[in-house]
Amino acid sequence: MGQVANAVYRAHLGPGWRAPAPARLAASMANTTVLVTGASSGIGEATARLLAAAGAEMLLVARRQDRLQALAAEIEAAGGRARALPCDLSDPVAVGELVDRLCTAPVAVDVVVSNAGKSIKRSLSASAGRFHDITRTNAVNYLGPIQLLMGLLPGMRQRRKGHVVNVSSVSAAIPFPLFSAYSGSKAGFEAWLRSIGPEIRADEVFTTSILFPLVHTDMSRSNYGRLPGLTPTAAAEVIAGALVRRPRLLCPWWARIADPVLTNAQGPFDRAAARMLGRR
Predict the structure, then answer these.
(1) Counting CB atoms within 10 angstroms of each CB, which of 54, 84, 219, 264 has the fewest?
(2) Looking at residues 192-201, what average pLDDT do you find?
């Protein structure tokens, strides 16, 4: 999908999905430290490049140390500021050590782009004896991000400055068959963020959840490469726009319509989906 096609696709998601003006983004990122999880590839990598170019100091978090160090070096070579902070979000000890390191650093975290994610496409029958699918997905998509934020939010609230961007999926609003582990973990984190939102908003800390449709990353390309979707760069521009405009929620208009329709017609939807899926 080319740049023009991506712009058209993004425009059809709704007006809030547009890219910000470069000058407004630069003004928003001035004197700002942004932590991006899942920064070694895909949406996270594209977001790190875009925000660094706009003037933000980037903290890059992911498991793959070599990829993070290479990205940090590229950003600095281009005149930006970036640090690689390798961490496996599914490891509570590692996340705790990262929080300690960040809370004692001379530069405070102003923005967290919670992007790291794990997706599993597997039927309930195929998941028999694989409860670790649930625990691993929840560790990356739910528990790890919450542990990280619980360590960083007190400082944001004390400074009265902060923004958390949840890079989520439309499956958090419309659970799709075969993605029960992924949809459940994404919906859980979104519910947690919605619950704490009013508490931290009182201290000038904002939250934004972006329920992305298909984005062509390494995680999705093998199954859905031929379907229309956004590139990681286009998705990064949506995140940048959210940092400028600070909406509470970005959800495609068609998902907003489908959610109440499916909620009130869950029985017919289940029967139709069952016929389509057959026995799995």
Answers:
(1) 264
(2) 96
Residue 255: pLDDT over 80: no
Q: Which two tokens stand for residue 213?
A: 């449709």
Mean per-residue pLDDT for 136-154? 96
Tell me the two tokens of residue 81.
Answer: 């500021």
In this structure, which amino acid lies at residue 134?
A: I
**What pLDDT score does 97 carry?**
97
Which residue in the block uniquely carries the two structure tokens 């890079």?
167
208 - beta bridge partners?
A: 165
- What was the pLDDT predicted at 280? 52
Residue among 113, 111, 98, 115 nearest 204 (CA)? 111
First CA to last CA distance, the chain? 32
Cβ contacts of residue 4 below 8 Å, gap of 6+?
none
**List of E strands, the chain:** 33-37, 57-62, 81-86, 111-114, 162-169, 205-212, 249-250
Average pLDDT, stretch 155-170? 96
Q: What is the average pLDDT across 63-83?
A: 96
pLDDT of residue 5: 55
93's CB contacts (< 8 A; 6+ apart) are none
Phi, psi for residue 42 in degrees, rounded to 5: 60, -135
182 is catalytic: yes
CA 264 from chain centre, in angstroms, equals 28
Distance of CA 39 to the CA centre of its chain: 11
pLDDT band at 58 (very low <50, low <70, confident <90, very high): very high
Torsional class of 91: left (φ above 0), alpha (ψ -120 to 50), beta (otherwise): beta
